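Narrative summary of target 7.
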Amino acid sequence: MNKQDQMTMQEAERKMESLREVFQVVRLVDGKMLMDREKRINAGDLSETCQCYTFWKKDKECKNCSSLLALKEQTQKIKFEFLDSQVFQVISRYVEIDGRPYVMEMIQNLDESIQIDQEGYEKLISKLSGYNEKLYTDVLTGIYNRRFFEEEIKKMEDEAGIAVIDLDDFKLHNDTYGHSAGDAALITTANIIKKYIRKTDILIRYGGDEFLLILPSIKKHIFEDKLKLIREKIHDAVVPNYEKMQLSVSIGGTIFREGNMEDAVASADRQMYIAKNYKNMVVTEWDENGKKKEENSASEKLKQQILIVDDSEINREILKEILKEDYRILEAANGEECLEQLERYETGISLVLLDIVMPEMDGFEVLAAMNQNHWIEDIPVIMISSEDSDSYIRRAYEMGVSDYISRPFDAKIVYQRVLNMIKLYAKQRRLIRLVTRQIYEKERNNRMLIGILSQIVEFRNGESGRHVIHINLITQLLLEQLVKKTGKYQLSWEDRFLIATASALHDIGKIGIDERILNKPGKLTKEEFEIMKAHTLIGAQMLDNLDMYRNEKLLKLAYEICRWHHERYDGKGYPDGLVGEEIPISAQVVSLADVYDALVSERVYKKAFSHEKALEMIRNGECGTFNPLLLQCMTEAQDKLKTMMEVAEE
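Modeled conformation, tokenized:
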């Protein structure tokens, strides 16, 4: 104990008065009262409440009382407490006043008005900047991801050149050389583009094989020359380990001067689709070559795209003749060709006209695939067939078609129903964009607050803040793989987003665990492990106490994850011994992500295992039993997982 912690009562009162300029509450707790109180509690006497009740308004005893610990160890303790939706920092400092033991408690509400010393401020900003940087980075290519566009770039108002760059024949590369080759092609393309742009320019991986390039304050002719240079350099490139692969890109460009950034991107996208007709080409809004090569190009490039799927060439020609004046037409002679076009263009297709009876893959099989890949949610389907029985029509609607037209049909009716459906979905997409923008703004603030809380936990736990980032990324990857594999859990995009966000709070209960146990370098004793296990219940209780947010989906998911992320599929986990699907899927996914990251990361009690060793240990059951379906997902995504973790560490 320092001499400065020995004082008279008069000195103590002066010190407390000065501390009240910084802290909201400063008070003295009598040491003898604390010790007597502990004795009575141990004896089962709860008749007298302690001083804590006046401030915290709790209806039960505090666990891990920091003031009692400070008294026993004659030192200073720091603790975080929750009161409703507020977080408080409590500093308990042992002092001796006139020779008697006391604890001086200093309490501060951690809201936005708190000032942090410069060094601490820089550390916190660094951690949080790193957190957001990871969220905005595409794990494969290392450039910005779509989220960065949605949250930051869409707000841009400055003049800029906008280009959409799409890899030609990407699916063919994947099918011919394998998905690793496809990844290599994307990485090579991104690296070449980065090499030939300025530091102020912005490159985003906008879709699977699509890049968005934004070049602020650039003249039209320089912009066009730059795009042609990028096209040439990509075409001349050699993909490492895949020398026979020939890369080419289709590029559409426009100049954004005012208005909505999304409209400018859509305009560049339309130019790209014109270029796509010829491959390895650049088309801009003002490009004369495009006008020469595309009849009525000025209006053609604004047309929406319809995919006609029918094994009969005559039927396709009839529909094409009805619609070609106002729409761009894509054709598929069977179900497999249809899926290839959907994979290539995705929401670039405004409508699918689908026949039922086709060889190899019929219309219902196409609908099943569209449902599995969630295309049916964004691309309307009108089924056109001579099969007019109630059972066929009912089945089609049950599988998600928007309309059903029986043959023979009236050309004017077909045209009008196509027009109505496209207009309806166009309005729906505008509404979705508006709602999505609002959700992103709201969730961005949520993530920042959650990030702050999780960083506090990680800092106290002696770990880097990367664990939280890793869990978020791994959770996203596993969920994406899971929805591709099965519709069993009915996880929407919002569900997956919220689970990944809530994963940051999985260990928040460690706030209530003694630091000596949290950061012990050796193996925990049986008693210490029992205390450590309590962090699941502490975290769940913290969240459950947030009454005003009890019905929020994010809080419910965070509660599931906090309480049950140490449960195991065979019932041998804790705290409740849940078995199999009794464990919420949110907790199952975060549990697997947490175990993997713990294995591949260095901790105070262990060295890091390799990616391969970690997967082997998990599959062999050395870390407990997991959902076999999730293990399949992790195995299938193992290459992407390894790349993602390597990028995250850079």
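The chain has 27 helices and 15 strands.
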